[in-house]
Amino acid sequence: MKILALCITILFSVAENPTTTSISEYQFLDALEKKVLISEVLGNPDSPHYVQPIQITLTNTLDTSVKVTIPNGQTFTSTEVQDVIVTQEELIALGPKESKTVPLYAMCMQQYESGSNELVSYTPGTIAQGNLATLAKEIEERKDFNTLGQYAVWVLTDENQLNNISGFDEEEALYLKTYTANLLDVPVPENDPDDYLTNYNDTGLITRSATGNFKFYFSSESAVTIAMFDENNIVVRELYNNPNTPKGKHDLEFKFDVEVYQDKVYYVRLIQDGEIQINMTMKPRNG
């Protein structure tokens, strides 16, 4: 009986002395307003503008740990380049007085402006509403952190044509084109099979080609794209896309029509799992 009484006493003592510690949770804009956080947002040089174009540094001003949610649809503005909209919610945990830098999935919102770079700073903006907010959530749901997702955003922000939502993945392009058309309550346009600009898998549509290749070793299976950017750092065309590129050595060839793309200079980039690995300068008009 004495042993039983001792066990009961110990159990009671543990129940009366909980050791769990709660962590305060904040929404990003609320945390800034309450001065819980200091934030700095810069362009991310390791990513194209439609994957993780910005990186945010958050500093916890408190002596206690916090968790901060940056919601899907949060915008960041710049006076130098395109504004961006976050396309994947991020939950960031910070210890007391801790600083942490995190890249954010986001997409550009004004095609006529330049893309992000590491010298550009951003200011927190509002949270998107309406069709743009709905599309941003759909991009997160389907993991369309690619040119197709970016083209869909530009249809809403820049009034681009729906057929601009085109790429190597024709099934996903049709889905996003249809989804965006439904948001706008307009018919889904038919695709012109003879339009080089909106057909990516028919190289027979090229009139006069500029070609190149990248030799690269992948240590594991990777999502690989080769994309062409103009002098403003804006993507103008994907030239290669394989989301399941096997590990090993690869010689990846690409080509584009210089009768269509006539700028003096383009930057052709090999992008592995959202990160730029190789940057090649091409001057097709000098060829």
Describe, in plain words, how this protein is organized in 3D.
The chain has three domains: about 20-130, no CATH class; about 130-200, no CATH class; about 205-285, Sandwich (Immunoglobulin-like). It has five helices and 16 strands. The protein has helices spanning about 1-15, 30-35, 130-140, 145-160, 170-185; strands at about 25, 35-45, 55-60, 65-70, 75, 85, 90-95, 100-105, 105-110, 120-125, 210-220, 220-230, 235-245, 250-255, 265-270, 275-280. A seven-stranded antiparallel beta sheet has the order 8-3-2-10-5-6-9. Strands 13-12-15-16 form a four-stranded antiparallel beta sheet, with no helix packed on it. Strands 1-4-7 form a three-stranded mixed beta sheet. A hairpin with a 6-residue loop joins strand 5 (about 75) and strand 6 (about 85). Helix 3 packs antiparallel against helix 4 (about 145-160) and helix 4 (about 145-160) runs parallel beside helix 5 (about 170-185). It is globular. It starts with a helix and ends in a 5-residue tail after the last strand. Residues about 1-20 have low confidence and may be disordered.
